[in-house]
Amino acid sequence: MSDVALVEFDNVSFSLSGTNIITELNLIVERAETLVLLGESGCGKTTTLKLVNRLFEPSAGEVRVEGKTTTDWDPIALRRRIGYVIQEGGLFPHFSIARNVGLVPALAGWEQQRIDERVRELLSLVGLDPDRFAERYPRELSGGQRQRVGVARALAADPPLLLLDEPFGALDPLTRASLQREFADLTTRLGKTAILVTHDVREALILARRIGLMHKGRLLLLETPEQFLASDHPQVRAYLETLELKGGDQ
Amino acid sequence: MSFWRFLQLNWSELLSLVQQHVVLVFIAILIAVVIGVPTGVLLTRYRSLRGPVLGIANVMQTIPSLALFGFLIPLPFIGGIGTRTALVALVLYSLLPIIRNTVTGILGVDPNVREAAVAMGMTSSQVLRQVELPLAMGVIVTGIRVATVIAVGVTTIAAAVGAGGLGVYIFRGLRQYDNNLLLAGALSAALLALAADFFLGLLQLQFSFEAKRSVARSATRKLVLAVGVLILVIGGFALWRGGASKTGGEAHVSVGSKDFTESALLAEIVAQMLEARGVSVERRFELGGNLPHEAMVAGTLDLYPEYTGTCYTAILHHTPISDSRAVYEQVKQEYAAKFNVAVSQPLGFENTFAMLVRGDDARRLSLKTISDAASQAPRWRAGFGQDFMSRADGYPGFSKAYGLKFAEVREMDLSLTYIALSSKQVDLVAGNSTEGRIATLDLFQLADDRHYFPPYEAVYLVRQDSLTRVPALQEVLAKLANGISTDEMRRLNYEIDGNKRDPKEVVKEWIAKRGL
Q1: pLDDT recorded at residue B244
Q2: How many C-beta atoms lie closer than 10 Å to residue B138's C-beta?
Q3: At CB < 8 Å, which residues of chain B contact A?
């Protein structure tokens, strides 16, 4: 176990009702890095995230968070140390924005005044005016605003690790680009470790310190964006070609 | 009497029936929610239980309400007559929509939202209480809304087991052929159902998180909350009042009656005479079928009026005989031995089955006896009450004894047979000999020339232990011995069925006139 590793996958396999979804995955996520898992749908990238916060447990091998196997963690305590962001934010429609953001602190038993302060701080941090948004409900917000709230909620209890599952997938291209930039700034500024899942190679190149390319439940390669761009791996080339096509359009 | 006049005269009784009705529905739904929602939650956690439990609840709802009441009556603890039985049946009816909608509501929660809740570090009970239940609440309230509307309807049947409510007016209206009673009962029940549907509909709106909120919505939310609190307070108050009115009074007698005018009238006579002597009386009137008997044997009823012939054949299952003295003695002896129930002195009149034809038919065909009518029977349609069709001394034995074969036999509500006869829908009916409308509708009673029907002398049946416990009972029953003639009974019946007068007033006048 190294001092810098926040999350380690040690020869992890996972199968669900007889189907192998993850096969012999080895991966070390270092502190304060943003690691992007890239792959098409069904490649096992989301499952990999859920193995970290023990929504799933490995069929073989082990996943360690802060040096401790996830199955040894109390799942509730583990999850409260991990921020989780999903597409559209996964906000609770019956909670106000303030209550959504303040959820994990409230679960942890913070005093209401401290929660309120934290909520205002976080809404400002993700670029939403607390006075305008705190008492609204998710339905009254645009997709981009909801996504910001989702990030604010994940950061609320100041967890060392963030898991993000296609967080910007449902947004229009302009909003997506600005949110991606802001998110990159934010994680750098706060020194957070993040594992982000996407099928968008452009997003991976913008956000990642390292990119892990997944295919059919296996990690094909794990490289920095520069190495990734230079790679002659056929899967990588296929991704980069889509990028060039897009570039040609513009 | 116009409907408005009727309402003016009876509004206080109508209000108390509405109150009983609301209290029954309210408690039943409360219990059903307390049982149904946790059951529904459990079913979402244990998939294998879902089929069987929903299946049972489904079957419960398909049982006709009257049959369910009948099934519950002989059961210990939850059965018997009165409010408890009605509540059990109502709860059973209300469970299915509540359980089903709880399951549907919780399973319908967006899986992403549920997963987010788990991933935020909520325990499974926090997920349930803070996310699943609130989001399922709209669907659950819909279930409660459906259950409530059904319960308002089913509660009208609860009158048949003596639980009160608006069904009392409906049953009485059917029996007395009184549209005012029917209308007052049915209309009020319908309005109650609509009101419940409306307010629960408003409540349901509050749990729809898909629509955007506005200031107006939060205003309706406050209104609905206020109305909800009001209903809770009224319900609670009514409950408290209901509970309070049952206590107090040392000598306490529960007086029952069967579900026809004369029985209720005879019961009312005893009730008022007892009250005049400082005894507190609980009226359990208008109980269907053999309910009064079963209730008395079970100890929940102290007294009810009965006819010796009914005891002899329907309860003791003897073959009918025509000697009234022998029947009385036999009934008295067997009731004391078998049920510990005393039989009062005969009241002085018989209420036997009266074979009735239209007066002009009788005159035209010169019919005097049932035997005279036998030759006409193949051309006649007959109308008989359910009771007559099913009992040992009823239609099967009767038609055999006289060799009668009718063109058609219709089974119908007893109180409707008189009207059906006079309006030529049928040509012969089996009525009661003390029926007030025999004279007013110009009907003719054919003589029972073969003495087929056993004597039906009116008596009071009373539990032995009640007699010793409440001495006033003995005095009252002694005063009523041989106190009512057949003509007098017909007149009293007509005051109520024909002149639509309030039974309590009719009885009060009669007691005053007779100086009892």
Answers
A1: 44
A2: 20
A3: 112-113, 115-123, 126, 130-131, 134-135, 207, 209-213
Q: Which residues contact A220 (CB under 8 A, 6 or more apart)?
A: A213, A214, A233, A235
According to DSSP, residue B474 is labeled: H
Average pLDDT, chain B: 84
**By three-state DSSP, how is residue B20 classified?**
helix
Using the predicted structure, report yes or no on whether residue B248 has a pLDDT greater than 70: no
Give CA separation, A111 vs A45, A102, A163, in Å.
37, 11, 26
> CA–CA distance from A247 to each of A240, A241, A242, B426 (Å)?
10, 10, 9, 93
- pLDDT at A7 > cutoff 80: yes
Is the model's pLDDT at B240 over the cut of 60? no
- Nearest CA distance, B126 vs chain A (angstrom): 9
Q: Where are the domains of chain A?
A: 1-69+162-250, 82-159
The DSSP 8-state label assigned to residue A49 in this structure reads H
Does domain A1-69+162-250 bear CATH number 3.40.190.10? no
Could you tell me if B299 and B463 are in contact, meaning their C-beta atoms sit under 8 angstroms apart?
yes
CA atoms within 13 A on the CB side of B8: 5
Distance from CA of A230 to the nearest CA of B (A): 37
Arithmetic mean of pLDDT, A93-121: 93
For residue B260, pLDDT over 50 is answered with: yes
Q: No. of H helices and E strands in chain B?
A: 24, 10
Tokens found for residue A64 = 């360690």
Beta-carbon contacts of residue A17 (< 8 Å; ≥ 6 apart): none
Least confident of B54-68, B328-342, B474-488: B54-68
From start to end of B279-392, where are the E strands?
280-287, 303-307, 341-343, 353-358, 381-385
Whole-number pLDDT of residue A249: 42
Environment class of A229 (CB within 10 Å of its CB; exposed 0-12, middle 13-18, buried 19+): middle
The number of angstroms, rounded, from the C-alpha of B245 to the middle of its chain's C-alpha atoms is: 21
Nearest-angstrom CA–CA distance, A150 and A183: 12
Q: What pLDDT digit, counting tens, does each position of B439-477 carry?
A: 788 899 998 888 888 888 999 999 998 888 888 888 899
Tell me the chain B residues in contact with residue A137 when contact means C-beta distances shorter than 8 Å: 209, 212-213
Domains identified in chain B and CATH numbers? 3-245 (1.10.3720.10), 252-348+465-514 (3.40.190.10), 353-446 (3.40.190.120)
Predicted pLDDT of residue B249: 42
The tens digit of pLDDT for each residue in B46-94 reads 888 888 888 888 888 788 877 777 777 767 766 666 788 888 889 988 9
Grouping H, G, I as helix, E, B as strand and the rest as coil, residue A64 is: strand
Q: Between B426 and B314, whose confidence is greater? A: B426
pLDDT at residue number A250: 38
Count CB atoms within 10 A of the CB of residue A117: 13
Q: Edge-to-edge strands of the sheet including B341-343? A: B280-287, B252-258, B303-307, B458-463, B341-343
b vs e for A27-37, b when ≥16 Cβ sit within 10 Å of the residue's Cβ? bbbebebbbbb
Distance from CA of B106 to the nearest CA of A (A): 14
Task: Inform me whether the pLDDT recorded for A214 exceeds 90.
Answer: yes
In chain B, which residues have their Cβ closer than 8 Å to the Cβ of A79? 118-121
Q: What pTM does this model have?
A: 0.68
Query: Which residue, chain included where needed, has tokens 């996504």?
Result: A147
Burial track B202-236 (b if 16+ CB lie within 10 A, e otherwise): bbbebbebeeeeeeeeeeeeeebeeeeeeeeeebe
